[in-house]
Specification:
Blueprint lengths: L11 H7 L24 E2 L9 E3 L3 E3 L1 H9 L3 H9 L9 H8 L6 H17 L8 H9 L13 E12 L5 E15 L5 E8 L13 E3 L11 E2 L8 E5 L2 H13 L5 E4 L3 H4 L11 E5 L4 H16 L4 E5 L8 H7 L1
Parallel strand pairs: 9-10, 9-11, 11-12
Antiparallel strand pairs: 1-2, 2-3, 4-5, 5-6, 6-7, 8-10
Helix pairs in contact: 7-10
Length: about 325
C-alpha cells in the first residue's frame, strides 16, 4: 500500500497541533510525553529529515503519521489520505478537524468500517483452552492463575494476525503473522468499542516486535472504556488497574484469599483516570496503581474524581517498590 506522500514535505509544526499534539511538545527538547503523559524528559520531537519523527521511552518512536495515530486514534490510512490531499497547514478539511477535535466519537463512516473489522477479528478468535499460546502467556505472566475464573467474554485467542508497522515513508508494512491474545474493550454500558491485541510467539511469550501490544481502531475513543476481566453481577467490589496482566494478578491474589472481585483493566494510565464506572453499580472501588510517576498521578486523579462523583469507598494502592506493578509483585511472591 503506497500513499505517494513525501513526509518531508509536510509542515508538521502546523499539522500536528491540529491533530491534538500541542505546540509546546514540538521543540526538539526532552520533556513529558503528550501521548502517555509519562515522565519529565522521556519524549522528544526530533523531526529528523522533516518527517515529524519523535521518540518516547514508553510509547516508542516513529514518524509524524504514527504520532497523529497515537494522539487521535484515527486509522493510519485515513491520516495518510488526509495528508496526501496536500493540506500541509492547520487549515484541514472539516471532516479531519472534527475527528481530531472529538474526545470520544469517530465519524459514522469510520465507525462502521472499524466495527466490521473488529467483528471479523473477534469472530475469528476462540475461547482460551489452557493449551494455546494466549493461555500459556497469561499463566506465565501470572503464575497460578485460574483461567476458569476469567470472564470468557473478555479474552480470546486468535491463531494468527498480521503485524503491521510503518516504514520510513509512513507506509504500512507487514512484518509477520503471530498468535494473538484478544481482549474486548467495552464502555461503561458494556458496549464493545475496541479490541486490544497482544502479539505472541507459539511458546506463549511476547512476539519479537517493536510494539507487541496494540489497540485496534475502534468505533469511538476509549473515554474510560475497560476490559472486564471478571464480571460478577452480584459482587459490589471493583478493582481497576492499567494492564491486563496486572488485573489478572489482582484477581489471582483475591482468589487466593477467597474474595470475589470484579476486575477491570483500563489499558494505560491516562485512560485509567477516565474510568467509565456506572454510578450505583459498586459500593467499593480499589485502584491498583503502577508505582511510577504517571501511574500514581492518574490513579490519584481517578480517586479524586470518583469521590467527587459520590463514590464513598475509594482506595488507592500501589507496590512498595518504585517501577513495579502488581503483576511484578505477584510474580515475585
Amino acid at each position: 500500500m503506497k500513499n505517494h506522500l513525501d513526509l518531508s514535505q509536510v509542515d508538521w509544526l502546523a499539522v500536528l497541533p491540529a491533530f491534538k499534539v500541542p505546540k509546546q511538545y514540538l521543540t526538539n527538547r526532552h520533556g513529558p510525553c503528550p501521548i502517555c503523559g509519562a515522565g519529565k524528559d522521556r519524549f522528544r520531537f526530533d523531526n529528523k529529515g522533516n518527517r515529524g519523527t519523535f521518540i518516547c521511552n514508553r510509547c516508542g518512536a516513529g514518524s509524524g503519521v504514527r504520532l497523529i495515530h497515537l494522539a487521535t486514534g484515527l486509522p493510519v490510512p485515513d491520516i495518510l489520505r488526509e495528508l496526501s490531499q496536500g493540506r500541509y497547514t492547520a487549515v484541514l478539511s472539516d471532516k479531519a478537524r472534527k475527528e481530531a477535535a472529538s474526545n470520544n466519537c469517530f465519524s459514522p463512516a469510520i465507525a462502521q468500517k472499524n466495527r466490521a473489522r473488529l467483528n471479523r477479528v473477534w469472530n475469528q478468535g476462540t475461547l482460551l483452552t489452557g493449551d494455546d499460546p494466549a493461555s500459556h502467556y497469561l499463566c506465565y505472566r501470572v503464575p497460578g492463575l485460574d483461567l476458569k475464573a476469567v470472564n470468557p467474554y473478555a479474552l480470546r485467542y486468535h491463531p494468527g494476525l498480521d503485524y503491521i508497522s510503518l516504514d520510513d515513508d509512513g507506509n504500512p508494512v507487514r512484518l509477520g503473522t503471530y498468535p494473538v491474545l484478544l481482549a474486548k474493550v467495552v464502555d461503561g454500558k458494556g458496549v464493545p468499542v475496541s479490541i486490544h491485541r497482544t502479539y505472541l510467539t507459539e511458546m506463549g511469550r511476547k512476539a519479537p516486535v517493536a510494539h507487541a501490544k496494540k489497540l485496534m481502531s475502534g468505533i469511538k475513543k476509549l473515554g474510560g472504556a475497560a476490559i472486564r476481566l471478571t464480571d460478577i453481577p452480584d459482587c459490589p467490589k471493583l478493582a481497576v488497574c492499567e494492564g491486563i496482566e496486572t488485573g489478572l494478578a489482582v484477581l489471582a491474589a483475591h482468589l487466593a484469599q477467597g474474595r470475589p472481585v470484579n476486575v477491570w483493566s483500563l489499558l494505560n494510565c491516562g485512560n485509567l483516570s477516565k474510568a467509565d464506572i456506572p454510578a450505583g453499580r459498586f459500593t467499593q472501588v480499589c485502584i491498583y496503581a503502577d508505582n511510577d510517576a504517571p501511574g500514581i498521578r492518574h490513579a490519584l486523579l481517578l480517586q479524586k474524581r470518583l469521590r467527587e462523583a459520590g463514590f464513598r469507598h475509594v482506595q488507592c494502592r500501589m507496590p512498595a517498590v518504585a517501577g513495579q506493578d502488581f503483576a511484578d509483585v505477584w510474580k515475585l511472591g
